Amino acid sequence: MKRSKRNFLIALSLSVVIIVVILGATDFRKSISYLLNAKPLWIALIFGLSIGSWFFESLTLKIFAVMRSLSVPLTYLFKITVIGTFFNGITPFSSGGQPAQIVIMQRRNISVGESTAMLVSRFLVYQSVITVLGVIAIFGAYPVVSGKISNLAVLSIFGFLINSAVLFFLVLFSLSPRFTAKAISIIVKILGWLRIVKNVGLATEKSLKELGFFHSSMSELMKRPLVLILASLATLAQLICMISIPYFVALSMGIEMNYFEITAVQLILFLVVSLIPTPGASGVSEGGYLLFFRPFFGESIGAALLVWRFFSYYVNIIFGGLATAHEIGFKSKLRS
């Protein structure tokens, strides 16, 4: 808990400092003017896109739950999704979401193996879809926007290679039991040497048992092409919601833009900052947004940054924190 609070404070501090610096470097009065004159209808639609990204991610989990014959309500998976966004937002490399979701689902009598199979299957599909979209964005948008953004090619290729590497190792981890078993044994031994794990033999045996269940789940998934197609479509809808936010931010401020151009740039930015080690990619996200979108927004970039960051990050923290608190309180009531 102390570590989570520390990470949250780091993320909050970095975001606030960078935003203040950016507002100070731009015309502060004009930024406030753009914010005050933003059209409420478009702001409401942006909030709807945030909710839509949560819904489609939870729908992806529901598809995998149905495949495994698990009776898990979509409303509960929606709650789990929002909780995951909260922990992703306060942990380095966005690494805390899935472990938190697994622990919380375990409290609702969903086994670690089942929840892990669902979440990793979802992550595998997510990485596949975003990598394909990244290729489309790089080759489709680069000729159009390269003149507006310096070093776009280097940044976009860097982001694409990182996410492709993650997908490669995830597939290798999922489909190669021998490689994964050796990797887990080495990791558990290292944790034992660091005295994080007390009983190395028991921990290794338990991990390998769960691994066997996980690999059988992944083998089953690969034999279900319809499930993969449905999950990919739901993930595509989730990503479209996420990368469309800058376009509607522009509309809320009365700025007309090309939808394809601005969403492609947002996707490239997302690829670049998705694996930044700071909690919530704080600091880099704001700086990257300024670098990528200033040629599009001009003097309204300060206001656009505030709106975008609020709905792409702080909304996750607010609603994810409330959902986490509610779930912990619900479990406490059950125990009492």
From TrEMBL:
Cellular location(s): Cell membrane
Official protein name in the record: Predicted integral membrane protein
Pfam families: LPG_synthase_TM
Annotated keywords: Cell membrane, Membrane, Transmembrane, Transmembrane helix
GO cellular component entries: plasma membrane
Top-level division of the source organism's lineage: Bacteria
InterPro entries: L-PG_synthase/AglD (IPR022791)
Membrane topology per record: Multi-pass membrane protein
Upper classification of the organism: Bacteria, Thermotogati, Thermotogota, Thermotogae, Kosmotogales
